[in-house]
Design brief:
It is built from five helices and no strands. The chain is mainly α and 130 residues long. It starts with a helix and ends with a helix.
């Protein structure tokens, strides 16, 4: 882009009034047009299913993702003078932290799905197109 072209674009933009325009879907293309509940719909059954899956994932992570043998191997390797023992221990600590974060997220999802439907029943009215 040449400098003079840039200056022309800046001048043209400066002459337009500042405004915001939000684009939307034409009324005839909206799947729930005219619906008092808007376009989004979720039921307690849907939320319960999400919470249930999060709970199942939490339990599987607890049972299958913890690797206690890694700590034992790291200790043994350190005791034998291998530097790999320290690195393995570092990896194990990092894994445990990340696993804990993931499990916390699963627990949060599971616990909050019970309350989401009731807590947000009135929100759709506020975001529904006018």
């Amino acid at each position: 882009m040449a400098w003079d072209e840039w200056e022309q674009l800046k001048a043209a933009a400066a002459n337009k009034p500042t405004q915001m325009q939000l684009n939307g879907i034409p009324e005839e293309d909206r799947p729930n047009a005219g619906s008092p509940t808007g376009d989004l719909a979720v039921t307690q059954k849907d939320l319960a299913a999400i919470g249930d899956e999060a709970f199942k994932l939490y339990n599987r992570l607890w049972e299958e993702a913890r690797v206690t043998s890694t700590d034992t191997a790291a200790t043994d390797l350190k005791g034998q003078g291998f530097e790999l023992g320290g690195a393995l221990s570092h990896v194990s600590v990092r894994w445990d932290r990340q696993l804990g974060s993931l499990m916390d997220a699963c627990a949060l999802i599971s616990n909050h799905m019970d309350f989401t439907d009731k807590a947000h029943q009135g929100d759709e009215i506020g975001v529904a197109p006018v």
